[in-house]
Specification:
It is a single-pass membrane protein. By secondary structure, this protein is α/β, with parallel strands linked by helices. The chain is about 15% helix and about 25% strand.
Length: about 525
């Protein structure tokens, strides 16, 4: 008896030592399950236990791992059923990277940097039930990426910064019960595809940019209610108008499916931040299409010039169309159409006008509730091309010598110029109607060439004459002022005034005629 107990103790110790040798550090091993968890590593360890069934490798947002790409040789355990590779820096996956894991049921690839997903990305995972790709920003998901996953029940594509998503890639997922698309930038969805997924029970569309849900999607809500599921519609850009009025009216019926309190109006501005359940019914009536304003009713431009007509419209679910004089329609689009841009507010821009644009243009704003139109007359002035041809000839002066018989004079040579050809100007004017008008030939008088110095000499003479004239005018003004100040001055005194005055005046002798009673002499 004692010997049998010793043998049992030795056997247990041997089994424990074997298991400890096979179980690597960081793993928890048992007879049926081996679970490993690693952090801060640069790749999948290559000496994992062969019986491993669950593997978790997780970095963090502040300190992610740096795997790079995954290859099929990274996983060799055929028993693995759960694989979590979170924050591992994975940017690419080779074709068939998981084909050595046929028993895999859960694959979590959260917050990596995967750039593209193709049909080969998940090849061989025929038993996969949960796929989590949350946080792989700007990932290009090809339409057939999820083909070959017949048992997939849960698909999470949240926080991937998706602005569009072709839901046709879900058509092969007939077993799908949970779809998570939260935290993206989706503005529209193909709701009919969601309705075709008959097993769909939970949908998370929160945190997107959805504005409306068609009223025919009430069948989808009924389907989810029957399965006791839910739809999360919070934090979207809901436009509270007639299109989602049905949700308010059926909020009581679908109270178990979605919370009407989570639907907060983003537009119109008068209803912003108000819960849909609190919006009065008259505010949810459709707005008829109407053209409020166009800054031009008649435009006149030259051919080739640009034209911009600024308009403002209102209405629910309107279609904006501009129709040119020949009947061609241009519908509002962010792209230019043959040099024409039509904007959703009704404005029209033409980068270059031509004769085809001349005439009445019609702005049409329509919806299923009505239509409004306005005409704008565009007059395009066709360009006229003028071509001027000038014919010039060079005149050669012929010298002529004239000799006089006067002995005191010398022969004088007088050059004269004789034009050999009279210059003419022919003007040809061509119009857009291809008419040619030729003007008559008009002779031009000839003119002798002037010396280059002639203009300069004239300027000198003009400057000198002007200066002399100003000096003379100034002298006359000064003399006039002196005369006015001193009164009349005879020529003798004027002449004497020019002389230098003496220091003391010379006394003059004055003879005074004596009076009858006395004779006196006086000197002054």
């Amino acid at each position: 008896m004692y010997l049998q107990c010793i043998k049992a103790i030795v056997f247990v110790q041997l089994v424990s030592s074997v298991q400890s040798q096979q179980c690597r550090q960081g793993c928890k091993c048992s007879a049926k399950v081996t679970i490993c968890a690693f952090t801060q590593i640069s790749g999948v360890p290559n000496n994992l236990p062969t019986a491993i069934t669950a593997l978790t490798i997780s970095g963090s947002a502040s300190s992610p791992n740096s795997f790079g790409h995954l290859s099929p040789s990274a996983f060799l355990s055929s028993r693995m059923s759960h694989l979590i590779l979170r924050y591992c820096g994975i940017d690419a996956m080779d074709a068939g990277a998981f084909r050595a894991l046929p028993e895999l049921k859960t694959l979590n690839l959260e917050f990596n940097k995967i750039r593209i997903l193709t049909q080969q990305s998940f090849q061989g995972l025929t038993k996969l039930t949960t796929l989590d790709l949350t946080g792989n920003n700007h990932c290009d998901i090809k339409p057939n990426a999820f083909n070959g996953l017949p048992t997939l029940l849960e698909l999470r594509l949240g926080e991937m910064d998706l602005d569009t998503l072709d839901l046709n890639l879900l058509k092969s997922l007939h077993s799908l019960a949970t779809l998570d698309l939260h935290g993206n930038k989706l503005k529209t969805l193909d709701w009919t595809v969601l309705s075709s997924l008959t097993n769909l029970k939970h949908i998370d569309l929160s945190g997107n940019q959805l504005t409306t849900i068609p009223s025919n999607m009430s069948t989808l809500f009924t389907q989810i209610e029957t399965k006791k599921g839910s739809i999360n519609l919070g934090n979207n850009l809901w436009k509270c108008n007639w299109e989602i009025k049905w949700m308010k009216n059926m909020s009581v019926s679908f109270s178990s499916v979605f919370s009407i309190g989570n639907i907060i109006c983003n537009s119109p501005a008068s209803l912003q931040y108000i819960s849909l359940i609190n919006v009065p019914d008259p505010k949810l009536e459709p707005i008829l299409p109407k053209i409020l304003y166009c800054d031009k009713t008649k435009v006149t431009v030259n051919e080739g010039s640009a034209v911009f007509i600024n308009c403002t419209i209102k209405g629910d679910s309107t279609t904006v169309t501009w129709i040119n004089p020949s009947g061609t329609s241009f519908v509002s689009s962010p792209l230019q159409q043959n040099g024409h841009n039509v904007y959703v507010n009704g404005s029209l821009y033409m980068s270059s006008t031509s004769s085809a644009d001349r005439g009445n243009w019609t702005l049409s704003v329509s919806s299923k509730f009505g239509e409004d139109q306005r005409a704008v007359d565009i007059n395009v002035i066709l360009s006229t091309t003028t071509t001027t041809t000038t014919t010039t000839t060079t005149t050669t002066p012929i010298p002529t010598t004239v000799t006089t018989t006067t002995p005191t004079t010398t022969p004088i040579t007088t050059p004269t110029t004789t034009p050999t050809t009279t210059p003419t100007i022919a003007t040809t004017m061509s119009t857009a109607s291809s008419k040619i008008l030729t003007m008559s030939t008009v002779p031009l008088p000839t003119r002798e060439p002037e010396s280059p110095e002639a203009p300069n000499m004239l300027m000198y003479y003009a400057a000198g004459g002007g200066g002399g004239f100003l000096l003379l005018l100034l002298t006359i003004i000064i003399c006039c002022l002196k005369c006015k100040k001193s009164g009349h001055v005879d020529d003798a005194e004027r002449f004497d005034s020019v002389k230098t005055p003496r220091k003391t005046p010379r006394p003059r002798r004055v003879n005074v005629v004596p009076r009858s009673n006395s004779l006196k002499h006086a000197y002054y």
